[in-house]
Amino acid sequence: MRSDTSCPLRSGPAAQTGQWHPGWSGRLTPHVLRHSCASSLHGAGTDLKALHVLLGHEWLSTTTRYRDRVLRRALLDRATVLKGGASAGV
User: Fold this and answer.
1) Phi/psi at 81 (nearest 5 deg)?
2) Tens of pLDDT, residues 1-17
């Protein structure tokens, strides 16, 4: 992954991430935010076709990856809770 700090779209989030979420330092990019927001929207009940249009994907199959991520996260959260841990959240 490219680390271009001269771009304001990268340097602004990079500085805030380093301060507030050091575990994500160097990994948070506009593209990661886009995917995170789409996964959260889908997890909150947004229709997959609406996400498809919102994201501008050419193929619906590209957008179905969000459904898979949300389902995987939900399964991991349930497994964690059943083992007595805290929920990881989305």
Assistant:
1) -65, -40
2) 455 556 766 677 777 77
